[in-house]
Design brief:
Layout (H helix, E strand, L loop, with lengths): L1 H21 L8 H6 L4 E9 L8 H18 L3 E7 L9 E7 L2 H13 L6 E10 L11 H7 L10 E9 L1 H5 L2 H15 L6 E7 L8 E7 L2 H11 L8 E4 L4 E6 L1 H9 L1
Antiparallel strand pairs: 1-3, 1-4, 2-3, 2-9, 5-7, 5-8, 5-9, 6-7
């Protein structure tokens, strides 16, 4: 059995060297642009590791995780990839990839290569959600003070926690005229204002791209403030128009690729 494991590891190592040799040196995509401009596709792909993953020798796991690193680096020219560790905080998945791209097919190719890799053979997809960043629909009509509140800078320092909430609106919401929706979204925004410094938010529009209307993404270092934010939003007039809020709610910690590799190698 030991000879078999060593032989397998040697083959994996040789394959890894070949993979890394043929991956071209690529420049990274303009990450700041992808994360800040409208018209960018955002995909959230959550995976669990299968039972066979933990049964392998650690050296084999490390070799397969190094292949993961090669796949990620291969695609950084066209997509921005963020990783999150859900294991230990969520029963929905072990890891989450957030991918930004100007073309959704670039995200598709990354996920195909990921799932087709030696590491990817151990991944079980638990959920994939797509959205699109857009300019704010209602903010231009808000009072100046509300607009000023939205420009308050976030508190400095890392925000290690990430939360993803899928949202589906009711038909009644879309049946309201623009002015009524705008008034309720102003109330929504005012309820959120006390938490702008401690909870970063990003909204993705999913209608037509998924069985959702929105994906709300949050980062914070203060989960108690995030908890208070959600309680405040549940009290505004807009909230009952949500047919779906969460289900699932994904919560995890922001990790670098190397940190993910270190944790999953254990």
């Amino acid at each position: 059995m030991k000879r078999f494991s060593i032989a397998v590891l040697m083959r994996l190592t040789v394959l890894l060297l070949v993979v890394l040799a043929i991956v071209p040196a690529v420049g990274a995509a303009d990450r700041d642009k992808l994360l800040s401009e409208p018209g960018v596709y955002g995909t959230f792909a959550a995976f669990s590791l299968d039972a066979d993953w933990g049964k392998q020798d650690q050296a084999v796991r490390i070799a397969q995780l190094t292949v993961l690193k090669g796949v990620v680096e291969q695609h950084r020219e066209k997509v921005a990839i963020d990783l999150y560790l859900l294991r230990g905080l969520s029963d929905h998945a072990d890891v989450l990839f957030r991918i930004h791209a100007t073309e959704l097919r670039d995200t598709q190719q990354f996920l195909l290569d990921l799932q087709g890799s030696l590491f990817g053979k151990h991944l079980k997809t638990t959920g994939v959600m797509h959205g699109l960043t857009k300019k704010a629909n209602y903010v231009p009509g808000f009072p100046d003070q509300v607009k000023a509140d939205l420009k308050i800078p976030s508190e400095p320092g890392p925000k290690p926690y990430a939360i993803v909430i899928p949202i589906r609106k009711s038909a009644d919401w879309w049946g309201l005229d623009q002015d009524k929706r705008a008034a309720m979204m102003q109330e929504h925004t005012e309820a959120s204002a006390p938490y702008i410094k401690t909870v970063n938010r990003k909204l993705y529009h999913s209608s037509g791209l998924d069985d959702l209307d929105f994906i709300a993404y949050f980062e914070t270092s203060k989960l108690d403030d995030f908890h208070s934010l959600i309680l405040a939003l549940e009290k505004v007039k807009e909230f009952p128009y949500n047919r779906r809020f969460g289900h699932p709610t994904l919560i995890g910690t922001v990790k670098s690729l190397d940190e993910i590799i270190e944790v999953l190698a254990q």
